[in-house]
Amino acid sequence: MAANTEDFVIVGAQSSDANEHISKPALSFWQDAWRRLKLNKLAVISMWFLIFILAFAVVSNIFVPQKAANAFNSDKVGVYKNLPPNSGLPIPGWDGKIKAPGDTTVTDVYASQGVPDGERFILGTDNIGRSVAKRVIVGLRISLLVAIVATLIDLVIGVAYGVFSGWKGGWVDNVMQRIIEILSSIPNLIIVTMLGLLLGSGILSIILAIAMTGWLSMARQVRNMTLSLKERDYVLAAKTLGESSSKIAVKHLIPNMAGTIIVQIMMTVPSAIMFEAVLSAINLGVKPPTASLGSLISDAQAMLQFYPYQVLIPSAMLVLISLAFILLGDGLRDAFDPRASED
Amino acid sequence: MTEEAPKKLVELRDLQLYFNQGKANEVRAIDHVSFDIYEGEIFGLVGESGSGKTTIGRTILKIYEQTAGDILFQGKDVTHLKGKQLAEFRKDAQMIFQDPQASLNGRMKVRDIIAEGIDVNKLASSKAERDQKVQELLDLVGLNKDHATRYPHEFSGGQRQRIGIARALAVDPKFIIADEPISALDVSIQAQVVNLMKELQKKHSLTYLFIAHDLSMVKYISDRIGVMHWGKLLEIGSADAVYNHPLHPYTKSLLSAIPVPDPEVEKARQHLEYDTSIETDGKTREMIEVNPGHFVLATPEEAAQYQAQQV
């Protein structure tokens, strides 16, 4: 009646090469994502900015050691203190002249304080005569160090914890998720204060505080992704082929959530940088005389009306870096979005 | 075929799989199912969505753990295999999945997808040998060699399904569970894949468990058919017997639902409603052999009735 063997004619499997040929160039997932990321100008600019800043922070270690940024000549504080930014070019606001509040004329501070001729500070000096440029560079390094540590912890602890919890499921998952909930219910500030009491405030206690709590949201996201991915047919296929759990995680689960992981990192990093800045601003962070962007801002805020550049320069740096991370994260999310990539 | 090759490859004995056992939302996905699959045959399993066909397939491959009952493969119990023996079993029994899009990892090249089984079981000693094997498998399913370096999303549904078939064949299995391998493909491609599967079966003397809900396709490919509903196996028999002389009312209802590509006949076709009370009345029913090789789930009285209807 409906289906007889004779009714079917083989049309497919032996068809010509031309029929099977794919002329489109072979693009891997990453190449495809890169192609889409390139379309987003802001994300590309942010990416180059971050690459530049990172390279700069690394290279600057040679030229601007921590000591040079902290040192000042106590005999000549009067000469070097609070010098405005001076580019050496006649650019208004960047020529070493400043109009003090209440004054009607601008004064050349370099001349009036008797700074030797030819000596300039591109970003000015602070209230005891230290170069703001050098201190911002050192502060930048600390912020980026925090960013890198936060990334590593997110990647190593967050991803591993999430995959394990999601993959095992059952009571293991239950216990692991409750642990996350307990950890995330402790306010960060309390952890830092405790660590500060234990270890003394400093970069180590900030990093430990981030290590203890920074990976929680990553672990949650990865666990959720794992729960949905582990029911996918290709994971079942790998299971029926006898692939071990750890191989399945590395070959199938993590590559398929790479987008989520990267975007999550891009969101964690600015919050970690901000966290450090806030802690330093309330004196729970790096100890003076070490500079961080946060401590620079808090040190200078008393003088905001007189020497606004001392606050604005580190603040601008902080905002630019965070903004670049967020914009790049946004671009990456669009580039990785599987729904957008379907045809 | 059944008569000439009576050697059993897979035996299911009173298999049960209950989800959420003992709770209010208990689901009897597989409810006392027993059947045999003989070596070299294609056993078709049909039934509506949610009737437990796929669950049976996955339970045989030990993706799910059964609640009770045994699964025998080549006479050996595979339900409690561990370690090396389990790896051996995995090499002999493979699966083709329903959705070719979902069953291929989009982050892996076709070569690595196909070679996954080769890598896991260390079937190739060198990279050249591995590539060689992938090449052979691609040829086998009718794909070009330059397809090996491409990603799944670049292929059509039929091509992807053939990649899935190549992956299953990579470990040289004896038994393949085809879990609705054609239901996600459009009709013009279905024949392509089914014919490829038939051809491979002859070449490699494979045994299939062919799960589907398309009765005409199952009739075309299968030697024997089992009909499932609500986790129970209702009827087993040779493809011709089940298709042309159905016994169980559910099978009759299923068959009456097949559209006929002839407007005159189609107009006259009447769909038989299935009265589920035959399964919910609480009587104990067993598989009873009404005709040689044709079993139906029934009480003795019903069996007698079925017998009488035929004559």
TrEMBL record, chain A:
Metal-binding found in the keyword field: no
Keywords carried by this UniProt record: Cell membrane, Membrane, Peptide transport, Protein transport, Transmembrane, Transmembrane helix, Transport
Gene Ontology terms: biological process: peptide transport; protein transport; transmembrane transport
PROSITE patterns: ABC_TM1 (PS50928)
Domain ABC transmembrane type-1: 140-329
Segments traversing the membrane: 42-64, 144-164, 189-216, 261-286, 306-329
Compartments in which it is found: Cell membrane
Membrane topology term: Multi-pass membrane protein
InterPro entries: BP-dependent_transpt_permease, MetI-like, MetI-like_sf, OppC_N
Any single GO CC term annotated in Swiss-Prot or TrEMBL for this entry: plasma membrane
Keyword Zinc-finger: no
Top-rank taxon, per record: Bacteria
Similarity section: Belongs to the binding-protein-dependent transport system permease family. OppBC subfamily.
Name the record gives this protein: ABC transporter permease
Automatic annotation (TrEMBL), chain B:
Domain of life: Bacteria
A Pfam family reported for this protein in Swiss-Prot or TrEMBL: oligo_HPY
Keywords for this protein: ATP-binding, Nucleotide-binding, Peptide transport, Protein transport, Transport
Transmembrane segments: none
Domain ABC transporter: from-to ranges: 12-255
Gene Ontology MF terms: ATP binding; ATP hydrolysis activity
GO cellular component, one term: plasma membrane
GO biological processes: peptide transport; protein transport; transmembrane transport
Compartment(s): Cell membrane
Family: Belongs to the ABC transporter superfamily.
Name of this protein: ABC transporter ATP-binding protein
Source organism per UniProt: Leuconostoc holzapfelii
